[in-house]
Amino acid sequence: MTASGEQGRVTIRQVAEHAGVSEAAVSYALNGRPGVSEQTRARVLAAARELGWAPNIAARSLGTAKANAVGMVLVRPPRVMVVDSFLTQMLSGVEAELNRNDVALVLHLVDDFAGTIDVYRRWYAGRHVDGVIMTDLRHADPRPAALREIGLPAAVIGGGDPGGDPAVDGLDLTGLSSVDADTAGTAQGIVNYLRALRHRTIFRVAGPRELLHTVQRDAAYTAAVAAAGDIEYRCVYTNYGAADGMRATRELLSLTEPPTALVFDNDVMAAASLKVAHEMGLSVPGDFSVVAWDDSDLCQITVPEITAVVQVPALQAELTARALLTAIGGGGPTRLTLPPGTLTARESTRPPRPR
Amino acid sequence: MTASGEQGRVTIRQVAEHAGVSEAAVSYALNGRPGVSEQTRARVLAAARELGWAPNIAARSLGTAKANAVGMVLVRPPRVMVVDSFLTQMLSGVEAELNRNDVALVLHLVDDFAGTIDVYRRWYAGRHVDGVIMTDLRHADPRPAALREIGLPAAVIGGGDPGGDPAVDGLDLTGLSSVDADTAGTAQGIVNYLRALRHRTIFRVAGPRELLHTVQRDAAYTAAVAAAGDIEYRCVYTNYGAADGMRATRELLSLTEPPTALVFDNDVMAAASLKVAHEMGLSVPGDFSVVAWDDSDLCQITVPEITAVVQVPALQAELTARALLTAIGGGGPTRLTLPPGTLTARESTRPPRPR
DNA sequence: CGGCTCAGGTTAACCGCTTAATCACGCGGC
DNA sequence: GCCGCGTGATTAAGCGGTTAACCTGAGCCG
Fold it and tell me: B183-310 architecture in CATH?
């Protein structure tokens, strides 16, 4: 702290001179390794602090063959609004864990999904990162297999419920870590809630079908509806965007047998549905109820406020990062499931109008 | 591509053997440097491709004393929704430019603003990055001076209009690069637009006062209003959040002399104001008009749709990244101003009700 | 034909840190 | 009194590139 801003960074050598020991001793001392007495260790530490030394990570990486960094490749454009909020929460969670372990986060945006694997390959070959974190797993996603082939440790945020059938998902997560929310539980919660309000026709506006995320929810809803036994369920897929949400909502509400409740895979589409209701002269929750899976401020600035499920992506991401670090450290892969999201009832849900 | 997944990465040495030349020749060839014939260069390149070689960045960094990376430190939590969208757009822009130059982006989130400078210091000392990109400059922000002292090249997204008075802003941007939008022009555009609609009382719900961003807009609006000469202007500061926006809106609309138009520093607050209008039994744009500075999907899913100013943060960020790379490369600092944002008129603005 | 130049290559030092191998030395045991 | 041993240190060999300095031979000139 004292001596910064000088030309030429402080190296271990200067610390060694200053403390009157060899460079190796400094290295041992600074890394908390045996081989030096507590006394010299203290002297070295003092010297390092005094000179404002910080390890040259390039040198360290070269020596240890570890990058002390993990990478994330995102596909540009990062979809839409909500997802932005999701993204920042995830980054926040990931970083929380990485910081704790002095591991850096390298971010990379690619234009097309296909480019992702090339980046992984380069990262591996160049020892750029020690592992990667993935999100937005897709149906038949080539990344898990590629990473296994490359030999790069990886963890995935929302990787799929344990027990997800590889044959169905088109992917094999062997060897990868993953942390997922309890999709089945959440869907059940939503269905039960609406059913308790006496809704029997629940339609869903989902995300893109390619996303594993969506497919998982498909399965979860289907199961929940089947368990209830007396509910009519139906689903259309979208791209998560506001315009998509509006189109889908219009379509579903125009059916001869319209639903009494609409559930959305994100908050933006749920909010957009209110505009459609307005257009069509319908009232929410008078004519139909609305539930959003994924909460945000947005759900509270609409009229009516939207009933939503609260998830904690930051925590999920944090645990994923932890799992990755364990895997990098040689521990086996972790497979974790978080408790279901909790539903916050607001103004957009109510028993259906008796007919 | 062919030979990946083998144990032990491919080094320059193996490429050299494979091509039948020395390691140095390989280095020259791969870096497009003179010293090898076109013929051997081609042979080396072929060998490298065939073996799937990629430079070990640690080794390269150590040799060249360049990290080939730039860093961004963000303060957690990343404020709110909109800003999330801003963030992703910025990252997208930054990455676009960095990718083009094979420079990595290192992201770091800190809990308190104060920690930022320590990170910069460590990054510099450890040659972690060659430069940093800043956002959200504050009044009396300590970062520019610190970076200058440390000697780390830096560029700031939205750094302040050239001509901004250091004495006023409490900061000195000497030596730093910055790319800003034409705040003055944008404010003028908004004021002119509303004035043309015959609004004479325009109140503003602004962001946090600590942000330079907000202060710049203060100056811009004040100037625009002064130029018009016949407008009553007034401003309250918030934290950008939906709740803040609602509170501020309520406050301003409850004045004995309420405004006929409200301008907001972001889209979330503008959207939230519609809810307040609803609460108070007022109509938009019947009772007052609404303009958002910063556009997003959000402005199009509300009823009425919100008139907004479109900015291009991605471009701004991209140019900032470019400026940083130039600075790192030894070029002088760049100071750039982008054209004003363009106003998109939607349903939330209309001439005021004659009284 | 000797010597100079220059393109095309090679050798080896170095970047800063890690770590295996080595060493000095004091001490207890036989 | 000598040997073996453990402790606390040092020495030196990499890690995988970059690059200054040096070498070699062909081409050219006077």
Answer: 3-Layer(aba) Sandwich (3.40)
